[in-house]
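Sample pair:
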Amino acid sequence: MGVKIAAYNIDLVARRFVSRGDPSPIPEYLNLGGWQMLNNDDIEENLNSICRGLQQAAEKKIQLLVTPETSLTGLFPQKPVTQNPGPVAEAEKKLKDFIRNLKDAPYLVAGLPIWKKSKDGNIVRYNASRLYNPDGDTVATCPKIHSCESDFWHGYRLHEFDVLGVPTTMHICHDGRYPDLWTLPVMFGARLILHPANAGNVSGSVDAFEAKAKSSTTTSYAFYINVNGGGGSYIAGPQKYDNLLAASPECTKEVGTYPNVGPPVEALIHANIRVHDAFGYWPVRSFRTSEEVAKAYLELYRAMGGKRSLEI
């Protein structure tokens, strides 16, 4: 809860201010990073890139590092690199071992295909992003909810988890076309939105990129990170103005191709975000329209797999 004390046409001395109740379990700050790596169909090269990102993140004391969609294999639905479970599992094991042995390792979001048995007994493939903790353990597996790639199964469920106490939600690339995938989690407490993507190479002007990035939180009033395999990665804050907190090098005014964006490059972006500045205003106001509306949103949230308790 934000508190503001104001007085008009009178002198005021506030000698004491008391806020009673349980302290928030949500930390004030989170050092958030994104590792932009190019879409590549070589698992070994991708694994090496992720490890480079982890090393740089650890040196900067980053607490959560996000990589692009299918960062371990690249987004190549029709190529063997995303169709053979064996090499993917072997690379993931190496990644988990690297995290486990890295001093000051962050939490990591990495993307890869996974295979599961469907209700009818068939083995199906998902496009997923996984959250790993600093011990290399899997905390959450989040399949793409509305997949547009051929031969990938749909996830259909909301993805929510806490990172060091920060309520977080995630959707992948094409899922950004479905606002309910972040507005519903924000209604129920999420204050950080992760969006791994592989949406092709960034293009256009730097000014257009910045305008799009700054508007990315207008429906949530939460922090947002987009990490794309084709460049144009960024971190945005909930504020209305001057909320672009970090951007990949090819999309800054310092790039040699300015005023246009440059070719995408491997890069680390990061910002120490003040989580307490995210209030989730717009989704929460929609939720609070009436008791009937709140009940309908709660039922929809539960139907889509939402698991947080109602504490708003």
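Residues 29 and 274 are 4 Å apart (CA to CA).
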